[in-house]
């Protein structure tokens, strides 16, 4: 596992927590911010997965 995979999954988890907290507190701003953070984390984790795949196929 590379650093992009780890950091991406951490960001994804933090975003999910923030999104759920926003829903519970009825705070749309926090909910949207969490959703964005979650999706950015997914993207970074996906980039890390791609790097791992390329590394393995060399």
Summary of the model, kept short:
With 58 residues, the chain is an all-alpha fold. It contains two helices and no strands.
Written overview of the protein:
This protein is an all-alpha fold. It has helices spanning 3-24, 28-56. Helix 1 runs antiparallel to helix 2. The relative contact order is 0.24.
- Strand content is under 5%
> Total number of β-strand segments?
0
Distance between the termini: 16 Å
Main sheet specs? none
Order of helices and strands: HH
DSSP helix fraction: over 70%
Assign an overall shape: rod-shaped
| Protein structure class | mainly alpha
Mean pLDDT: 97
Low-confidence stretches: none
Count of alpha and pi helical runs: 2
* Rg, alpha carbons: 14 Å
Tags for this model:
2 helices, mainly alpha, 58 residues, single chain, rod-shaped
Task: Write the SSE topology.
Blueprint: H1 3-24, H2 28-56
